[in-house]
């Protein structure tokens, strides 16, 4: 790999068979090319370690140590191997590697319930020899609270609890719900079926709260009743699908909003089993973290999971270099992707 000093705009342009002007515009976020071209340029520049003067200045302004700082090693604690866990991890690893540091992903054993058990496990894995901990989303809240008390730098990739003293970053699901509901309203939908659990995680509760606020903003006279939607635990898939089919067959709803990743495909299947075409009979909006392989045209808000991991890495290095700075909570907001499952009434 060329050293950072050896890499120039010409290097990148030659590798990608583009002009220097196109490469420069791509790295500065200027228009005049496809998003695919822009993404290719940005990714190759990052692989080569190239940063513009503006990027260098931005790191300095944010007090983030450069790649010339002492290499550090971090641990990322995960509650499982869900798709968004992998996206988070890739984001953190990518940004840390660019700045000369290392990340070790670790899955927290599901049986841990007491602080003493957590301490024993952390000692066993040598957590005290790391420079900081990244805490992923959907860790059990009691376990998360115990981890936040550990006296070392930490970044939470999730919504923090009300009194948490920690830097945090999240892909903003509340904003995503509001963008989704605005898109539904703009297309004439007023009777929207909410599909998704509203417990036990903060992110689930915040989605439901945003849904209720969006309905009120649109003129709803009362708060939504969870029993009129599909908000129960989906563990018993047969019972859950029957409830979903019952709501869809009532004819009351013109659209379905699937607020939890992984539920849109089931809503699509439920509609198909009733002979309801999407979007002609009922519109469908999902909250998937990335393009769904079976529903590539799904209308959905963009959720920046990998980017949240990248930002978490920057917050961690900033915290280590500047331990007295106030804590920050960063929300990454994305646009709404129209897709082909949303129809105008």
From TrEMBL:
<dbReference type="InterPro" id="IPR010982">
    <property type="entry name" value="Lambda_DNA-bd_dom_sf"/>
</dbReference>
<protein>
    <submittedName>
        <fullName>LacI family transcriptional regulator</fullName>
    </submittedName>
</protein>
<dbReference type="InterPro" id="IPR000843">
    <property type="entry name" value="HTH_LacI"/>
</dbReference>
<dbReference type="GO" id="GO:0003700">
    <property type="term" value="F:DNA-binding transcription factor activity"/>
</dbReference>
<dbReference type="InterPro" id="IPR028082">
    <property type="entry name" value="Peripla_BP_I"/>
</dbReference>
<keyword id="KW-0804">Transcription</keyword>
<keyword id="KW-0805">Transcription regulation</keyword>
<dbReference type="Pfam" id="PF13377">
    <property type="entry name" value="Peripla_BP_3"/>
</dbReference>
<dbReference type="GO" id="GO:0000976">
    <property type="term" value="F:transcription cis-regulatory region binding"/>
</dbReference>
<keyword id="KW-0238">DNA-binding</keyword>
<feature type="domain" description="HTH lacI-type">
    <location>
        <begin position="7"/>
        <end position="61"/>
    </location>
</feature>
<dbReference type="InterPro" id="IPR046335">
    <property type="entry name" value="LacI/GalR-like_sensor"/>
</dbReference>
């Amino acid at each position: 790999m060329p050293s950072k000093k050896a890499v120039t705009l010409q290097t990148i342009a030659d590798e990608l068979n583009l002009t220097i002007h196109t490469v420069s515009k791509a790295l500065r976020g200027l228009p005049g090319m496809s998003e695919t071209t822009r993404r290719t340029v940005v990714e190759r520049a990052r692989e080569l370690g190239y940063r513009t003067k503006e990027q260098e200045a931005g790191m300095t302004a944010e007090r983030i140590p450069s790649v010339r700082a002492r290499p550090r090693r971090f641990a990322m604690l995960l509650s499982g191997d869900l798709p968004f866990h992998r996206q988070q991890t890739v984001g953190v690893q990518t940004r840390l590697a660019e700045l000369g540091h290392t990340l070790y992903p670790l899955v927290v054993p599901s049986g841990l319930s007491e602080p003493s058990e957590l301490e024993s496990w952390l000692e066993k894995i040598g957590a005290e020899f790391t420079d900081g901990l990244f805490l992923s989303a959907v860790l059990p809240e009691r376990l998360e609270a115990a981890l936040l008390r550990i006296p070392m730098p930490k970044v939470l990739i999730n919504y923090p609890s009300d009194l948490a003293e920690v830097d945090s970053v999240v892909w903003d699901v509340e904003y995503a719900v509001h963008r989704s509901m605005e898109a539904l309203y703009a297309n004439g939908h007023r009777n929207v079926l909410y599909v998704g659990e509203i417990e036990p995680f903060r992110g689930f509760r915040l989605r439901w709260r945003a849904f209720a606020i969006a309905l009120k903003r649109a003129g709803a006279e009362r708060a939504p009743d969870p029993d009129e939607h599909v908000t129960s635990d989906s563990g018993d898939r047969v019972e859950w699908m029957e409830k979903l089919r019952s709501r869809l067959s009532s004819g009351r709803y013109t659209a379905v909003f699937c607020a939890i990743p992984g539920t849109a495909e089931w809503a699509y299947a439920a509609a198909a089993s009733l002979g309801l075409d999407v979007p002609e009979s009922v519109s469908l909006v999902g909250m998937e973290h990335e393009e769904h392989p079976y529903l590539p045209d799904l209308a959905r808000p963009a959720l920046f999971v990998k980017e949240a991991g990248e930002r978490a890495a920057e917050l961690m290095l900033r915290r280590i270099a500047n331990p007295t700075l106030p804590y920050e909570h960063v929300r990454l907001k994305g646009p709404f992707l129209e897709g082909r499952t949303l129809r105008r009434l």
